[in-house]
Amino acid sequence: MAWAESVRTRGTVAAPFGDVGVPVVDPADIAEVAAVCLLDDRHAGGVFELTGPEGVTPRRQAGAIAAALGVPVRFHELTREEAKAAMTPFVPPELADDTLDIIGAPNAAELRISPDVQQVLGRGPRPFSDWVARNIAAFR
């Protein structure tokens, strides 16, 4: 929802590393897996890695929002310096640098698509477009 205001007011999503994608997990999948694990003893003591079904880039996320809205949403790729400047009011500069290092070059584990949502829920993880559809009012 961090982009909701900029989409509503400027029709724009701004983020660094526009073509770097990770398998973003839908919060509803996290909640559903947690509920199943709490209610089903077969999952007691289990450790689960929850991911989305595919890597999704910020540029593709902006496209999914535009498709759901039915209007263009422009993607603006922030430079590393612009992204750091936007983060430093909320985090120390060194943490901003570390965060940008991580999101700019995810490692193999961060790119991996886990089977755990499927294993626990008996269905695959929801794509980003499903999350957008459920939350589209925030972007209008």
UniProtKB/TrEMBL annotation:
Gene3D superfamilies attached to this UniProt entry: NAD(P)-binding Rossmann-like Domain, UDP-galactose 4-epimerase, domain 1
Recorded coiled-coil stretches: none
Superkingdom of the source species: Bacteria
PANTHER family linked to this entry: PRESTALK A DIFFERENTIATION PROTEIN A, PTHR43162
Protein name: NmrA family transcriptional regulator
Species annotation: Streptomyces polychromogenes
